[in-house]
C-alpha cells in the first residue's frame, strides 16, 4: 500500500470532510470528481500535508513534514513570483531541489509551447500558460505522488492532450497521479479509477475499465 487515508475527518467553518477512507497504490491515475464545494480541494490538501491530519499514511507510516519531499501538489490557483520570467521561476525551483530534476523537463516545456514564453514575466502570462508552468513546476522534482487540483483549466485542447500523455507515461513508471475536476468528461479515457465526492463524503469509488 503506497498511500492511505483512514477515516479522515476535517471541519472548516460550515464544511466537513466526513470519514473518508481511500487506499491508493503506486501506478494509479485517480480522478476525484464532484461539484464545487464537494471537498475535492480540501481532500487533496490533506493528502499533500498542507492540512495536517493524523490519519494519513505513506507505506504504512504516518505522514510527517520531513517525508513530503516526493509528494508534489499543484494548487488550482498556483502561487508565482510575478516579476520573475518563466525561466527564472523554473531555475529558482530547480535550485530548491539542488538541480535534482527530471531530465525531460526541457522537452516537455517545448512540447506544450511554453518555451516561447521563457523570457516573459509571469505576470503577463495567460491563464493557460500559468497553468502549464504550474504543472511543470509540480513535476520538476520527479515526485512519486502527484496531486493536481483542476490542472487543465484554461489550457488549449492540443496542450491538454500532450499533458495527458506525459501523465500517462509517469504512471507507467509507477508514479501515482491524482486529479480533481468538477467536469467529469475531462477525465474520459484518462483515469484508471474514479472517486466521486458529495458534501464531503465519498459516494462512489470505481475502477475504470
The main β sheet shows up as: 6 strands, mixed
Fraction of residues in β-strands: 25-35%
Strand order of the largest sheet: 6-7-8-3-9-10
End-to-end Cα distance, whole Å, is 21 Å
Broad shape: globular
Rg value: 17 Å
Q: Quick check: average pLDDT? A: 90
- SSE order in H/E notation? EEEHEEEHHHEHEEE
Count of extended strands: 10
| Helix fraction bin | 25-40%
Please work out how many helical segments DSSP would assign. Answer: 5
Poorly predicted ranges: none
Brief write-up:
The chain is an alpha/beta fold. It has helices spanning 40-48, 86-96, 105-111, 127-139, 157-172; strands spanning 3-12, 15-24, 29-33, 56-58, 61-62, 71-74, 145-149, 176-181, 193-198, 201-207.
Amino acid at each position: 500500500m503506497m498511500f492511505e487515508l483512514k477515516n479522515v475527518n476535517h471541519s472548516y467553518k460550515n464544511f466537513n470532510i466526513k470519514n473518508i477512507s481511500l487506499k491508493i497504490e503506486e501506478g494509479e491515475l485517480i480522478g476525484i470528481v464532484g461539484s464545487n464545494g464537494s471537498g475535492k480541494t480540501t481532500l487533496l490538501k490533506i493528502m499533500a500535508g498542507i492540512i495536517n491530519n493524523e490519519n494519513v499514511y505513506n507505506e504504512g507510516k504516518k505522514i510527517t513534514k520531513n517525508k513530503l519531499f516526493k509528494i508534489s501538489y499543484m494548487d488550482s490557483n498556483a502561487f508565482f513570483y510575478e516579476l520573475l520570467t518563466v525561466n527564472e521561476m523554473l531555475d529558482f525551483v530547480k535550485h530548491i531541489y539542488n538541480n535534482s530534476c527530471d531530465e525531460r523537463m526541457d522537452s516537455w516545456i517545448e512540447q506544450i509551447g511554453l518555451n516561447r514564453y521563457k523570457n516573459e514575466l509571469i505576470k503577463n502570462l495567460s491563464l493557460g500558460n500559468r497553468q502549464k508552468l504550474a504543472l511543470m513546476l509540480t513535476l520538476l522534482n520527479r515526485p512519486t505522488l502527484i496531486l493536481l487540483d483542476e490542472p487543465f483549466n484554461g489550457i488549449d485542447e492540443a496542450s491538454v492532450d500532450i499533458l495527458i500523455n506525459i501523465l500517462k507515461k509517469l504512471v507507467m513508471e509507477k508514479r501515482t497521479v491524482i486529479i480533481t475536476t468538477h467536469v467529469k468528461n475531462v477525465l474520459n479515457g484518462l483515469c484508471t479509477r474514479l472517486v466521486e465526492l458529495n458534501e464531503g463524503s465519498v459516494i462512489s469509488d470505481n475502477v475504470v475499465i
